[in-house]
Amino acid sequence: MTEPWELTAVDALRAFRERTLSPVELMASTIARAEVVERTVHAFAETRFDEAMERARRAEERYARGGPVRPLEGLPVALKEETPLKGWRHTLGSLVFRDRVATTTAPVAERIVRAGGIVHATTTTPELSCTVVTHSRLWGITRNPWNPSLGVGGSSGGSAAALAAGTAMLANGSDIGGSIRLPASACGVVGFKPPHGRVPVDPPYNLDRYCHEGPLARTVADAALLQNVLAGPHPADVTTLRPKVRVPSVPGGIEGWRIGLSTDLGTYEVAEEVAACVRAVGGALAEAGATVEDVSLPWSLEELTRAARAHYATIFGADIEALIAEHADDLCDYTLAWGEEIRAGRTGPDAFLRGLEIEAAAYRPLGELFRTYRAIVCPTWAVAGVPAGDPWLGRTSRLDGGPYDRQYETVLTTPFNVLSACPVLVVPAGTAAAGAPVGVQVVARPYDDAAAFRVGAAIERARPWTRIAASIPPPAGDG
Description:
Layout: H1 9-18, H2 23-41, E1 44-47, H3 49-65, E2 76-80, H4 107-114, E3 118-123, E4 135-136, E5 140-141, H5 157-165, E6 170-175, H6 181-187, E7 190-193, E8 212-217, H7 220-230, E9 258-261, H8 272-287, E10 291-294, H9 301-314, H10 316-327, H11 333-345, H12 351-370, E11 375-379, H13 403-410, H14 415-418, E12 424-431, E13 437-444, H15 449-462
Parallel strand pairs: 2-3, 2-6, 9-10, 9-11
Antiparallel strand pairs: 1-3, 4-5, 6-8, 7-8, 7-12, 11-13, 12-13
Helix pairs in contact: 2-3, 5-6, 8-15, 9-11, 9-12, 10-11
């Protein structure tokens, strides 16, 4: 028998309208699930279950009246703790801000609440969202529901883990180097990095082209549902695009489309089990009617890394350096290492300008491919499965040549923050050793959001997956 927490968001809304399920029943089921699995997963930073139940009762009344309801009416939604919601804790995963409470509400949180979503919990991140794993001195280790010895990626790790564990219907994330897509891939869920400007971002990072807000969900249709709530111009963000673009809730097929397939983007060393999942997706897309062809890019990982380092050092790095100067004793080792990374990125007064030149040059060959192909499919991670609690993705010495070299080598997401106009949808592609989910990136032409969703939906139809880790064992040694 299917429990309410196992439903997709789209199916739960249908059940609400048909009066076969109530928001109260769904919320109670979700909370009961969380009370069992959170002891292992640790995806939540703060919970307000009593308040959520009261909001669920109000949603139940709206459905009972039979009138119009809002797009997310009655759904439990987990909010990334980095996203301020007035009155909730806003610690950024750091002991430095352990007692801070948000005094404002971010545009994406505002839109979720106004659409009827019920925020029952906020989700864990790494400290200051400055790395691609999710653990901190404040919250401990967030573990992968599929295998608790594995990590969940970052920085939106708690959001992805909650979806995979069945403790949220929808969740939001932010992405400055892969922070939506990496956790989605690691946890076997769907994540969307919209083009820059599609979804409002709090200032001043709305002016950072690398920075995006977007949805995480269990299915492509659920991701579309939340994306259509989040998207659109906002008076607080001058970069938001007009008019609002909606992605189709039921995407069309891909018959006759030409799709490029790359297992390494021309420059990464990708594990064979990851590459095999990408090739299997290519075969499935061909069976769905697309023409799938291998493509390569003349990119240099060294050059892409140089550009990203200069960008991060110039913008995001200023916040980190100020905190290190005043609060080094309260910060995580990886945050202190990020300070070293910032200094490494400042290789001279022209570093940022040189980075822009590299970024501009990187698009030319991809743009040429987009003259032929509607989308490019590639890996998200170069490896399958990262140990839980490991901040260096396998590197044991903190500063032996720079731990962030390992991150740039391991994630294939950063190029599409560099090329920020490209929409990128991550969908599950298979499972590797140790039960580690593997997700692929669907990279579409600039601002062609619908194409990314159509290809993602085609993958989902051709290679359906188990959306939730139903049985979650405790981590080894925890009893």
